[in-house]
Amino acid sequence: MAQTQAAPMQEDHHKVLIVEDDDRLADLTQNYLVNNGLEVLCESDGAQAIDRIRSENPDIIVLDLMLPGKDGLAICREVRPFFKGPILMLTARDDDLDQVLGLEMGADDYVTKPVRPRVLLARIRALLRRSHEHAEEEEGMPGASGATRLTFGNLSVDNAMREAWLNEAPIDLTSAEFDLLWLLCSNAGRVLSREEIFSALRGIEYDGQDRSIDVRISRIRPKIGDDPVQPRRIKTVRSKGYLFVKEAS
């Protein structure tokens, strides 16, 4: 597939790179996104995708898992050290393993194939909005919430720096993991339902089946010194949601 760039119908200042080897799907997706005000680039070869990401510096990447040359998981893992924007992964329908691996490699969100264009556009806009809000906070622009740090014993979380520390040692968190941890910490002592978490972090309603929040919780727990089997800091409240305990015993 030729490497293409299309001008948006209405200037949005957001550049999307679609890494997808299905020419028809890529073209249809590109046309839909362009008609909704986004600038869209396409790349079909996984081996060339990393160079395209470096050279084009998109605002967001829509990344398929199954690609010629190099698969989406390898691409996600390799670009995360230098690409700070959101990555939206395309996964096989109902394939939990793909979704879990994608999140573990640093993807911010995923949609299942076949992709519904309206759902894809909503996810892209939600990720871009969240990314923009983070940039404002880091740069101290008007409307930013300012530096805020929460400390719970040996755990500290700083929303302005977007960093966390355990026993004063930095914790390696993906952007999506930090967002979830901060949401839980800033609501310490209150049970947050999955519906509330999805609305706050992804801007969409919880469909009752998505496991991304559960996967991130399981990834965060050991990083903050929590026991995955009998957690003390982030507790699962059956049929309700998750609770961050203010004073873990």
Structure explained in plain terms:
Helix 2 packs parallel to helix 3 and helix 6 (175-185) packs across helix 8 (212-223). A hairpin with a 2-residue loop joins strand 7 (149-152) and strand 8. The longest helix has 23 residues, at 117-139. The strands form three sheets. The chain has a six-stranded mixed beta sheet, sandwiched between helices. A four-stranded antiparallel beta sheet has the order 7-8-9-10, covered by helices on one side. The chain has a three-stranded antiparallel beta sheet with strand order 11-13-12. The termini are far apart. Residues 5-11 and 138-147 have low confidence and may be disordered. With 249 residues, the protein is α/β, with parallel strands linked by helices. The protein contains eight helices and 13 strands.
Features:
single chain; 249 residues; alpha/beta; six-stranded mixed beta sheet; four-stranded antiparallel beta sheet; 8 helices
Quick recap of the structure?
This protein has 8 helices and 13 strands.
- Overall average pLDDT: 83
Query: Would you count the extended β strands for me?
Result: 13
From the spread of the alpha carbons, the general shape counts as globular
Elements, N to C (H/E) = EEHEHEHEHEHEEEEHEHHEE
Our measurement of the CA-to-CA distance between the termini, rounded to an integer number of angstroms, reads: 57 Å
Q: Give a short account of the largest sheet.
A: 6 strands, mixed
Which stretches of 5+ consecutive residues score pLDDT under 50?
5-11, 138-147
Strand order of the largest sheet: 1-3-2-4-5-6
Rg calc? 18 Å
User: Roughly what percent helix?
Assistant: 25-40%
State the secondary-structure class. Answer: alpha/beta
Helical run tally: 8
Strand content: 15-25%
